[in-house]
Amino acid sequence: MTEQHPPTTRTVLVTGGNGFLGSSVVRGLAAGGHRVVSADLREPQEPVPGVEHVVCDVTDAAAVRAAFAGRSVEVVVHLASIVTPGKDSSRELERRVDVDGTRHVLDACLASGVRRVVVSSSGAAYGYHPDNPAWLTEDDPVRGNEVFAYSHHKRLVEEMLAELRRTHPELEQVVLRIGTILGETVDNQITALFESTRLLKVRGSDSPFVFIWDTDVVAIIQRAVTGEVTGIFNVAGDGAMTVDEIAAELGKPTLAIPEKLLQAGLWVGRRLGLTAYGPEQTIFLKHRPVLDNTRLKTVLGHTPSRTTREAFASWRAARGI
């Protein structure tokens, strides 16, 4: 019997297709000749030609099932999550989107006979812990801190995926634990730290970052959709940069504050409504996960176009800093 190879084009459903990352993924997959269904809370302002855009709230299981119905979806790229909560957000809403929404998508995958799911997880799933190894590999446990909604929810999602690998191995998985994304137009709570007059750090902590360029993330997702390799992969450029190194590149000083003093200031600030962050935020500053990307390069077969330092230099140049 002649061996049957999978077709080079796929029918791909992308959740969170209007988002910063999702919109680039949708355009890239469409340009690659795939039939793309983009699902998000509303129609995009600038629909992508050739892409079917459907309105879908992942917190609504029936709406998710409807997005799959009659479309013969082969691969799902699940990007829908709340990375940067708005001022009207709540822990309950974030869990409904991040955790319950993922469960609804996975249930629909199983019910519809989807072959593969590509999930955007995060380095935050490892958690922010003083005993994290200097370089985290995919074999290290996910211990996302309950005090941080995003970190905790990514851990819960990964636990869900691990159980599904045991009970439903027919659904192929590619899980991407993504580091800090930078790109020419990236503007978020992380980049805001770099645009401060002085860069904040906890005294005695290097607080390293790992960066990945946004076009690399899109290319990695495209490879995950079309390739045969499955598994879990850290997504980051080579190397890391400490806060002091970032400050030096920017020509700015650092402000090293004792942890106890910083915790007290955050406690007062939150009590007065000046900040949404509390004393627990210091562990985020001290124990940021640093991702080893060996498996990304040697198993998935993608070498990032920029190292961590080069990605930061490109972002700085794009912002004119």
TrEMBL record:
Name used for this protein in its record: SDR family oxidoreductase
InterPro entries assigned: Epimerase_deHydtase, Lipid_A_modif_metabolic_enz, NAD(P)-bd_dom_sf
Coiled-coil segments on the chain, per record: none
Residues covered by the NAD-dependent epimerase/dehydratase domain: 12-197
Pfam family, one: Epimerase
